[in-house]
Amino acid sequence: MNKAETELRVRYQETDQMGLAYHANYLTWFEVGRTELMRKIGMPYAEFEKSGLYLPVLKAYCEYKHAVRYDDLLTINTRLEKLENVRLTFYYEIRKEGKLFSSGYTEHAFINEKGRPVVLKKKSPFLWNCLLKALENDKD
């Protein structure tokens, strides 16, 4: 259950003068996949915020394998890759018709409303256990 598949069609505004998807949009598409995965796990970002927790990006990496163009129908495969006391990592693949077009990851910190790192297990055992369960379900 730590995986989500989200379809997205490339909009004209997401392309550059050459008709290719602008490279920074891939990170936005990663966010779309991540948001849907969190919703699928049963803990949308709003749940984190209600608990006084936030998930800023610490690292972002994207490898571009093939160009994406206007109106391409993409599939964003997202999975929860790693869970640690104060951070978590998501892995992404963007595919078109099954072919891998890009892959990458984002690493996020658990912080409070003051921007200080928090140990999720202590701050919110419920949210920690939901994420842990999702991660373990993938190993079954």
Q: What can you tell me about this protein's structure?
A:
29% of the residues lie in helices and 34% in strands. With 140 residues, it is α+β, with helices and mostly antiparallel strands. It has one domain (3-137): Thiol Ester Dehydrase, Chain A. A hairpin with a 2-residue loop joins strand 4 (87-96) and strand 5. The longest helix has 17 residues, at 25-41. It is elongated and about 50 Å long. The relative contact order is 0.23.
**Describe the biggest sheet?**
5 strands, antiparallel
Structural class: alpha+beta
User: How much strand?
Assistant: 25-35%
Note the overall shape.
Answer: elongated
What is the H/E string?
Answer: EHHEEEEHH
Which fold name fills CATH's third level, the topology? Thiol Ester Dehydrase, Chain A
The CATH architecture would be: Roll
- Count of individual domains: 1
Mean pLDDT: 93
CATH class: Alpha Beta
Total strand count, please? Answer: 5
Query: Any idea what the radius of gyration is?
Result: 16 Å
Q: Enumerate the spans where pLDDT stays under 50 for 5 or more consecutive residues.
A: none
Number of helices: 4
Strand order of the largest sheet: 1-3-4-5-2
- Helical amount among residues, as a percent range? 25-40%
What is the CA-CA span between the terminal residues?
10 Å
CATH superfamily: Hotdog Thioesterase
